[in-house]
Recover the amino acids of this structure.
């Protein structure tokens, strides 16, 4: 019964949680290869469009680390890849209720391609090493190891608010004492995935499976819950107090919307249809949503490869195609001037978009195949922070010098899905998602 419920709300993620617990015992992987980062293993696959599509389809839930790519230190056969791919498509294929794998993905070519490039002899060329211990990084374990701490937000006391997507609770970490408070949400299997804190200190929490937005009052700790009628991905509060969201799996029409917190009314806006994917199962996969300094609402399309700008006042849209096909624009941000900084998850680049000229500029990350997942700009200091899904590292980019600084994370398989910056200190907080086997945690990085 429990499993069935879980399946209805977030099938693959719920499964992922159960596998994480089953695999938390030491694996039989040869110790050396288990110390390889996912970017090292992705490095065995030839660069190009096929690889970018693979990164998009197959490394969003779990990293391509040794547990997936080479269990026990050995290459999988094409037959083994084929059966795993069939199973993945049954969880999250384009015609399932959680369609994060594109309609183009099919097991035969996927398994041939993987077995061709991930072989015992190609694996022997990987030089794994222990993750370095950095005094600048401190990790904090979540109470439930199989949880998925999805998003983090630093509040105005410097405490860190965390969404527990699998434990269905919210958490608040006090970095000074290390104490972690936990908060119930009055919705069954609440599935909190994103959180923002408004300027009065209220938490606005997106509940994925239940298709709702919940607000927690800062003074009394009371919750108010609003129906929005679609599985949302990201959330933002504009200057007028309207709470914006995007429909993660909407495509025909593709939609964003906002909640008026006073009336509870929800207004939907149709995004210009994606030219290739609006009519295709799976669709463009609306992803991040951010509000620009000028009040425009922007979203990215992970599969659709576009950035979309919406002007709420005129109800108009403008779309921008990413310069590289299938690059996977994921969780982008704005700097103080309104320029976009976009992580290309599959393209492996940090990309800047000037919204007035529509001009893109791209930079390679210091680590190849890093799978940059999330960008947040420290608007006080001008630094651009990049969290990655495959490098077990965080990067700081200084736009003035175009130089990157790397911060190694102490955990292999640290799929960083989100980060936030304490504006007063510049300290960075990151959340690691669950790849099977990695106990859930958040980490503090001293720049
Ligand atoms: C929606 C989340 C999700 C996506 C997307 C996803 N996986 Fe998985 N994957 C899982 C989960 C959950 C498990 C653990 C349960 C299992 O093995 O069935 C897993 C496990 C695996 C394993 C280990 C299986 C084993 O027997 O040890 C492989 C290999 C794998 N995935 C490959 C892939 C490939 C290839 C793709 C792309 C086609 C992919 N995954 C996409 C969720 C996902």
């Amino acid at each position: 019964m429990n499993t069935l419920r879980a399946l209805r709300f977030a099938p693959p993620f719920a499964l992922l949680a159960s596998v994480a617990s089953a695999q938390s015992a030491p694996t039989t992987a040869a110790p050396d290869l288990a110390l390889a980062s996912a970017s090292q293993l992705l490095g065995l696959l030839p660069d190009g469009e096929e690889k970018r599509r693979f990164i998009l389809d197959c490394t969003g839930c779990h990293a391509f680390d040794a547990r997936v790519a080479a269990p026990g230190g050995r290459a999988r056969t094409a037959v083994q890849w084929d059966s795993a791919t069939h199973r993945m498509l049954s969880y999250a294929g384009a015609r399932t209720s959680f369609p994060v794998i594109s309609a183009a993905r099919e097991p035969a070519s996927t398994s041939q391609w993987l077995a061709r490039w991930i072989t015992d002899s190609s694996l022997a060329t990987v030089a794994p090493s222990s993750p370095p211990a950095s005094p600048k990084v401190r990790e904090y374990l979540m109470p439930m190891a199989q949880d998925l701490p999805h998003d983090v937000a630093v509040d105005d006391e410097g405490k860190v608010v965390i969404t527990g997507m699998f434990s269905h609770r919210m958490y608040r970490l006090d970095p000074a004492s290390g104490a972690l408070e936990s908060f119930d949400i009055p919705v069954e299997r609440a599935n909190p995935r994103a959180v923002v804190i408004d300027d009065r200190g209220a938490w606005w929490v997106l509940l994925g499976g239940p298709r709702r937005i919940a607000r927690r009052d800062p003074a009394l700790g009371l919750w108010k819950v609003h129906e929005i009628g679609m599985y949302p991905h990201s959330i933002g509060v504009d200057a007028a107090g309207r709470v914006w969201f995007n429909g993660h799996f909407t495509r025909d029409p593709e939609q964003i919307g906002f909640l008026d917190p006073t009336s509870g009314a929800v207004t939907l806006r149709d995004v210009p249809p994606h030219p290739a994917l609006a009519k295709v199962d799976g669709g463009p996969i609306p992803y991040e949503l951010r509000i620009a300094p000028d009040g425009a609402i922007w979203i990215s399309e992970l599969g659709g490869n576009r950035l979309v700008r919406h002007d709420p006042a005129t109800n108009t849209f403008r779309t921008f195609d990413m310069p590289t096909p299938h690059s996977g624009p994921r969780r982008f941000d704005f700097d103080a001037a309104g320029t976009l900084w976009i992580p290309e998850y599959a393209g492996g680049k940090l990309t800047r978009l000037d919204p007035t000229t529509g001009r893109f500029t791209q930079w390679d990350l210091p680590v190849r195949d890093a799978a940059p997942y999330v960008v947040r700009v420290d608007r006080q200091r001008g630094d651009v922070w990049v969290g990655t899904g495959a490098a077990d590292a965080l990067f700081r980019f200084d736009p003035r010098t175009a130089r990157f600084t790397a911060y190694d994370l102490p955990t292999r398989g640290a799929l960083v899905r989100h980060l936030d910056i304490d504006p007063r200190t510049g300290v960075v907080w990151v959340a690691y998602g669950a790849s099977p086997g990695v106990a859930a945690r958040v980490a503090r990085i001293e720049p």
